[in-house]
Amino acid sequence: MKITLAGSRYFGRAVHDLLLKEPDLEIARVAVPSADDRLAEGARAAAIDVYVHENPHIVPLEAIAPGTDLIVTAHSHARVAHDAVASARLGGIGYHPSLLPRHRGMAAVEWTVKEGDPIAGGTIYHLADKLDAGPIAAQDWVFVKKGESARELWERALAPLGLRLLLEVVRHARDEGELPATPQDEQFATRAPRLD
Q1: Which of 7, 4, 9, 15 is nearest to 62 (CA)?
Q2: What are the Cα distances from residue 68, in Å, to 83, 134, 146?
Q3: What is the H or E stretch that residue 154 is in?
Q4: What is the residue-level pLDDT of the chain in tens, covering all 196 positions?
């Protein structure tokens, strides 16, 4: 199965390193917002094609490797363009560190802490035109410790959860040739805009 990985920073690199170890998977290209990003460095070290998208907010069709079966996003703050998602046989998936549809947006972990949620979680969702609103492929939850900061929650629980869930869904796609899909219930949707 051929993957285009779009992402950045620690989590993008961690997903890259995890997928490289999987049999019958090929990361054909990575799409990054900056040539010196950790993900780009890891891809170049593994002789994987690197595409730097000019607009930090959009991953264009040209960023997707020809013959891509699945687009995987990992800490990508850029929306994957509609025609780019449509170009992949199975479309695209991303990891969002919340129990979608709750806390859609850039600051999901921060809003989890700000709102005093006792439970947090992570969701693998299908990329769609509307932000963080595609069908759910996998989801799991964790407890939030009292007094825990957003960074502590991310590092302790949500990043490891995201790696596990992404690997489960990618393996399912490879082995079954399809992705699980459960629609999100819009009545429970909340926003998580960037906090200043």
Answers
A1: 4
A2: 13, 20, 43
A3: none
A4: 999 999 999 999 999 999 999 999 999 999 999 999 999 999 999 999 999 999 999 999 999 999 999 999 999 989 999 999 999 999 999 999 999 999 999 999 999 999 999 999 999 999 999 999 999 999 999 999 999 999 999 999 999 999 999 999 999 999 999 999 999 999 999 999 988 7
- Listed in order, the ranges of the chain carrying CATH 3.40.50.170 are 1-89, 95-124+137-196
Other CB atoms within a 10 A radius of the CB of residue 96 amount to 26
20 by DSSP, 3-state: which? helix
174 backbone dihedrals φ, ψ, rounded to 5°: -65, -45
- Peptide bond between residue 118 and the one before it cis (omega within 30 degrees of 0): no
| CATH 2.40.400.10 at 1-89, yes or no | no
Q: Which CATH superfamily, name and number, covers 95-124+137-196?
A: Formyl transferase, N-terminal domain (3.40.50.170)
Query: Which value, in Å, is the radius of gyration of the alpha carbons in the chain?
Result: 16
- In single-letter form, the type of residue at position 183 comes to P
pTM: 0.97
